[in-house]
Amino acid sequence: MSRTVQPRTALPGTALSPTKAAPPGAPDPHPGPAGGRAAPVGRDAEDRLLRGLLADLRRGRPALVEVSGPPGIGRSTLLDHAAALAAEAGIRVASAAASPEETCLPHGIAAQLLDGPLPGTAPAGPDLPPDRARPGAAVAPRPDRLCAAFLTAARSRPLLLVVDDAQWADTPSLRGLQALARRLAGLPLMLLTSRNTAVPQDPYERIEPCPLAEGRSVARHLLELPPLPAEAVGRVLADTWPESADAAFRQEAARRLDGNPALLRSVTARFLRHGWTPDTGHLAHLAESAAEAVRERTVRTLPLLPPELLGVLRAIAVAGPDCTPGLIEALAAGPRTPGTARALTLLSGTGLLADGPRPALRGEAAARAVLADLGTGRREELHARAAEWAHRAALPDRAVARMLLGAGPVGAPWAVAALRRRAAEERAAGHHSRAARLLERALREPVPEALRVRLLTELATAVLPTGPEASSRHLYRALDPPAGAAGSAPVDPGTVRARLLATELLVARGDFLTPAARIARAVTEAEPGTAEHSALRALHWMAAHGSPDPEEGCVPPLPDAWPARPEQAAEAAVAAWRTARRGLDITRARGLARAALAPEARAHVPPAVRAAAAYALVLCGDTEEARGALDGILVCAARRDARPVAGVALLVTCLAELWGGRDAAASEALDRCEEVMPAPLWHPLMAPGPLALRALLDLRRGDADAATRILDTRLPPAAEGGLAWAHLLYARGRVRLAAGEHDTARADLLECGRRLLARRAANPALLPWRSAAARTLDPEDPLAVRLLAEERRRALLWGAPHALATALAPLPGGATPPGAAERARGHATGWQYRQALVALGTAPFSGHLTVDSLLDDARTTTGPVPDRRAPARGAADPGPPGPPPDAGSAPDTGREVRRNGRPPGERDPRRHGPAQAGPRGARRGTQPAGRPAPAAGGAPAPLTDAESRVAALAADGLPNRAIARELAVTPRTVEQHLTKAYRKLGIRGRPQLAAALGRTATEETT
User: Fold this and answer.
1) 988: Cβ–Cβ under 8 A, 6 or more apart, which residues?
2) CA-to-CA distance for 60 and 158, rounded, in angstroms?
3) Closest of 873, 876, 801 to residue 839, by C-alpha
4) How far is CA 319 from CA 218, 359, 390, 421, 725, in A?
């Protein structure tokens, strides 16, 4: 703004004679050269004003101008520009710059002004008396004598006095300048000063002209420099880089730098130093550079503030975007603190506060700089007071939680509750790192053990998308007892329930091996007979089954019938899955699964365990019922934000749709699974499962190349130890079979069967690897005959329609060796095939699986199904199996597929010769299928693959621990395998092991 006043000519006691100003239009008594100097960028209006005032000064008209603004706004640049214009116009210039260090030095500013004009003016300088004041002089002149010297010099020639940063002027010099301003009327003298608005100004420090004029006037102007407009910022960028900056970059620079020239110079210097260009590709560098420049300006400005305003600024930094006047008063109250409104007015001139309805600093970097000089204790105490005030004022959880992040432990329940609520909101919004930070802060509070476990579980859920291994470590901590807790201390039910959820997340993700001991301890801590105890037992069995080296007898026994109470339904779910994977009793498996999925048991069975029961129903052929249960599991998992549980449910859903022939629905379920649980989030033991399903879906669509690319995905070495690896082997074998690579496909499929049988998973509904492996051989090959016969026998034993259809119909994507169909055409139909057709025709309706569709599909693809599948009677027919083993027996071990690829109960034609088969049974004296036939003379029972490997290494002289390291198992497992091998071989110890193994090998080859 500008205003004109009428001051007096002189004060009493001064030797000043009045000088009249030249009338408008009169010739300039001191003409100067025409100035061609360009105005500072964005200061065109100020340049025009200063040029006009300097022209009036040459005509004898005085002026008093004050330039104000925050740090870095360009005050000094404008003053230098005015001094240069005056020098070009022939006006003598004397300048001075105040500083905080010289505030207490008397006459410091006066001495700089009296030293001489700026370069370019008359070298003699103004005519001053010989007794002019010097800093530190013994006798200092009075202010009236000091200003008399400048007034005397101005009478001979126009004079411009420039004082930069007048807020730091020493008191004697300030008094002299004030006296001079009151005597400007009628003299060609202009006083140009600048003031930093970051420093509050007291009323007695103002430089004002005399209000009485006696007909003469002094031009009075107050110039408040505004921020540079966006156009000016673009001009600066264009002057810095030859190529023009992007429009988006110019707009972003103007917004982030607030039009501050000093910040703009700092950012451009950094860009030039690093070789960056002003385009949209470096907007991130612009944001980083702007934040650093704001921080540096804040650091330079803070020492200028008095302690009272610094306290208010710290309160604003602590409160952040949720700052209110009441919060400022609560945090910054002090005996000398000005009112909130007055303090905010003073701080508005510092350039540190952002525009907006609430007081706030310009970015987090500036807030950290404001609080940097405080100690940790003081800073945490300020944040704690702010959080408590925000809680009492019912501010949103966002505000309370943000303040608690910087506070130490509060010890109040509301603090943990606010942090948990805000963390849940951040997780729902997809800000997992923010949620993790809030939960980590909540764990610093003293909380009960149950709440600690829940916080760790929530923290594991929050960090899972970005750090799956860190998520597992948090769950391990949740299962571990607190530090200093006694080993025999009772565990409250709330803690058991919280640990149940942590255990479920670990098992669902596929982390079986590391937490096994922790899960076992959690089972012992739960009260027997409760739903939590039953659920933990079920999860313990699932973890033991999925581990790389499952052992029988290492888990609690499970019930053989559905429970009498719903609280035990979790164990029924796992029993259903165990029965289904063995393929022994479909009625029992279906009853156990339905008991676990019943509405009254739903609240007692964890969703991951219910997914196992739904999988059992899928294997039973009840896909519609299983999909209904899986939909409920997905809803529960979404409500609890349990990504691993949702991923497992979607994998089972994909299997259900795949068995039901709905490939599009299966692909959709797998897509959702990959969205919820991307491949890196699974534990290595589970990672092959989704890949195997994707490859099978691509193969069903006829895209073998895509399936091959999927199977070529690099997996961690630990992925080969789990059950999911068997699925990958099956998918890889199917893909290689479709490509005609029969040898490699057969190796993969037989290895898949070996791994399944090692886990007692003999149900062909799980993975029909036998029939797929048989397709890699000639139909008359003895191994193909035995594999097909065994799969049909087990499909009949299980009785699920889709298992029977798979055993009878051609496999999708399968291939037949050349000439196999012609050689098989016309062969007689086996009794197992006819019995399977009867079972399939009498099975419950299961959608597309019917006898007519099966026969039509077989006739249109490979001819009559009996000719394609059933071997001819004679030397290649192994004969029908005897009665199936009862449900209590366990014939399906690793013996079923030995190194020669023979299933159990099948004769080796090299040892026993051909066998005849008939529709009613086998020859008298033959052993039932599924049980090894003892050799003549009491030969030892064959060893499993695991026992054979351990025994072979032991025979080579390796100790148990070396064998354990070689096979990646525990020493206890090695001891158990050796004990079983000794018993089967009929020996007493390791010295006889080598001879016994040699004898056994000889017997098998004779």
Assistant:
1) 982
2) 7
3) 801
4) 47, 9, 9, 20, 54
Nearest Cα to 831, choosing from 899, 876, 879?
879
- Give the DSSP H/E element, type plus range, for residue 4: strand 2-5
Measured distance CA(52)–CA(68) in Å, rounded: 19
pLDDT single digits (tens) 169-228: 998 889 889 888 888 888 899 999 999 888 888 888 888 888 765 546 888 999 999 999
Q: How far apart are alpha carbons 606 and 610 in whole angstroms?
A: 6
Q: SS3 for 617-630, per residue?
A: HHHHCCHHHHHHHH
What is the C-alpha separation between 727 and 721, in angstroms, rounded?
12
Using DSSP's 3-state secondary structure scheme, residue 18 falls into coil
Identify whether the C-beta of residue 693 lies closer than 8 Å to the C-beta of residue 701.
no
Question: Nearest 5°: phi and psi at 93?
Answer: -130, 135
- C-alpha 977/C-alpha 966 separation (Å) is 14
Whether 29 and 59 have beta carbons less than 8 Å apart is answered as yes
- Written in H, E and C, the secondary structure of 840-863 is HHHCCCECCECHHHHHHHHHHHHC
Report the relative pairing of strands 218-224 and 2-5 from DSSP bridges.
Answer: antiparallel
DSSP state of 245: P
* One-letter identity of residue 145: R
Strand-strand pairing, 159-164 and 189-196 = parallel
537-594 tens-digit pLDDT = 999 988 888 777 665 444 445 555 555 566 788 999 999 998 999 998 899 999 999 9
d(C-alpha 429, C-alpha 271), whole Å:
35
pLDDT at position 857: 46
Q: Are 817 and 777 in contact (CB under 8 A)?
A: yes
CA-to-CA distance for 583 and 760, rounded, in angstroms? 10
Q: Are 16 and 151 in contact (CB under 8 A)?
A: yes
How far from each other are the two terminal CA atoms of the chain, in whole angstroms?
A: 114
Task: Please give the structure tokens belonging to residue 686.
Answer: 């589970």
Note the pLDDT tens digit of each residue in 794-810.
988 898 888 887 777 55
Give the list of residues 6+ apart from residue 502 with CB closer than 8 angstroms, or none: 453, 456, 457, 460, 475, 478, 479
Angle at 731 between CA 728 and CA 736, to 5 degrees: 120
CA 919 to chain centroid, in Å, comes to 63
Can you tell me whether residue 374 is helix, strand or coil?
coil
H or E, element range at 71: none
Specify the DSSP element, H or E, that contains 242. Answer: none
Q: What tokens does 624 get?
A: 């519609």
Cα torsion 495, 643, 559, 499 to 10°: value is: -10
Residue 828: other Cβ atoms inside 10 A: 13
Between CA 495 and CA 518, with CA 684 as vertex, the angle to 5 degrees is: 25
CB neighbour class for 575 (10 Å; exposed up to 12, middle 13-18, buried from 19): buried
Strand, coil or helix: what is 878? coil
Q: Which DSSP category does 918 fall into? A: -
Length of the chain: 1006
Assess whether pLDDT exceeds 50 at residue 132.
no
**CA-to-CA distance for 792 and 969, rounded, in angstroms?**
35
Q: Which among 528, 530, 503 has a CA at the least distance from the CA of 517?
A: 503
User: In 799-884, where does DSSP find H-type helix?
Assistant: 801-808, 820-824, 831-842, 851-862, 865-869
Ramachandran bin of 885, using left for φ above 0, alpha for ψ from -120 to 50, beta for the remaining angles = beta
340-371 burial, b at 16+ Cβ within 10 Å, e below that, comes to beebbebbebbbbbeeeeebbbbbebbbebbb
In sign, the C-alpha dihedral spanning 618, 622, 627, 632 is negative
Burial (Cβ within 10 Å: 0-12, 13-18, ≥19) of residue 268: buried
